[in-house]
Design brief:
The protein is of the alpha/beta class and 342 residues long. The chain is 25% helix and 27% strand. It contains nine helices and 15 strands. Strands 3, 4, 5, 6, 7, 14 and 15 form a seven-stranded mixed beta sheet that branches. A six-stranded parallel beta sheet has the order 10-9-8-11-12-13, with helices on both faces. Helix 9 links the parallel strand 14 and strand 15.
Length: 342
């Protein structure tokens, strides 16, 4: 690389099964000049998220698939290096959906300014960003937890699940988390205040889970799908609500996901299962962000970040999501700011 070049990460292949390093290409490019109302942005942090695996498939979904030999895109925190917009100046911190690249050129209207005085800037990729909003709207609009109800969260130590459980506690629910290590179980109970937590990797998971929900399940926030969710759904109560947010257990399964037939359970309990994506709530982001910010400042919400340092380690950080190596939000630190005083 020279002072006038940067690297971006492109999708080289559409993975069959679990992605590997060979599915990603690092490509060197020249730093371009910016036009009217454009910004030259230096990437500080990248967000890596499970939903990106779905975009690597060439199939119809709620968002277009990534293109081969084009940059992968995702949530990015960046510093303004040059600005041709009156709305931004050099040193401003911004966030937006941008390329997995060390530099980006973006239209000024496509990014949002981040105020570093409110909270650490990385929270805008996590608890105060799309992650937190996903937990907020999915739980409160679909799950509608009530005082004293039992709320179960799978993927509970992840970026979304950890926020879901804490909001459920704020609403007076009895919260049971499902995670994949003793360290995560301890974190959920001792740090986040979950009432119970169960390790799905234990041989006696189903028995332990039944013991953890003696009064059944009123709300299930599903981040993983698969056999874990099968076990939870068989314990749902009458008028239960199942919130479908993710199915990470199946994302790398090339043969598709096959499980038990569960329709009868929803009929006999008069229960509801509903999927969603965050875009469904775009009209109300401001309300969600205000509530999350208020709870965080009041100390009612906690968060954890797993940060991998180095742009070259971005694929490694992404692949780690499917091994459960992250606690809380998974981020990649790409660079320190040049002009911003954080």
């Amino acid at each position: 690389m020279t002072p006038n070049t940067y690297r971006e990460i492109q999708l080289a292949n559409r993975p069959e099964g679990t992605p590997t390093d060979s599915d990603f290409n690092f490509v060197e490019k020249n730093i371009p000049t910016i036009g009217t109302d454009e910004l030259l942005l230096k990437t500080l942090y990248l967000s890596v998220d499970p939903y990106m695996r779905g975009r690597m498939k060439d199939q119809k979904s709620y968002v277009a698939p990534f293109e081969l030999n084009k940059a992968i895109t995702g949530g990015v925190l960046a510093e303004v290096i040059e600005s041709n917009s009156d709305a931004f100046k050099q040193g401003d911190i911004v966030t937006g959906t941008l390329d997995w690249a060390q530099y980006n050129v973006a239209d000024a209207k496509s990014v949002q300014k981040v105020d570093p005085s409110i909270a650490p800037i990385t929270t805008r990729l996590g608890i105060l960003g799309l992650t937190g909003l996903t937990a907020y709207f999915g739980l409160l609009d679909i799950g509608k937890p009530q005082q004293g109800e039992t709320v179960v969260v799978s993927g509970a130590a992840g970026a979304v699940g950890s926020v879901v459980g804490q909001i459920a506690k704020l609403k007076g629910a009895h919260v049971v988390g499902i995670a994949g290590s003793q360290n995560k179980i301890d974190y959920l109970i001792n740090e986040l205040g979950f009432d119970e937590a169960v390790n799905y990797k234990d041989d006696n998971f189903k028995e332990a889970f039944k013991k953890a929900v003696p009064n059944g399940v009123d709300v299930y926030f599903d981040n993983v799908g698969g056999e874990v969710s099968d076990a939870v759904i068989f314990e749902i109560n009458r008028n239960a609500r199942v919130v479908l947010c993710g199915a990470i257990s199946a994302y790398n399964n090339p043969e598709g996901d096959i499980g038990p037939r569960i329709q009868w359970k929803f009929i006999t309990t008069s229960s509801m299962m509903k999927g969603f994506t965050l875009g469904d709530y775009a009209h109300d982001f401001k309300t969600g962000a205000q509530d999350l910010g208020k709870w965080l400042q009041e100390g009612k919400l906690k968060y954890e970040e797993t940060i991998v340092e180095g742009f070259e380690k971005t694929p490694e950080a992404f692949l780690g999501l499917f091994e459960g190596s992250n606690l809380g939000k998974q981020l990649v630190k790409v660079a320190d700011p040049e002009f911003a005083k954080l």
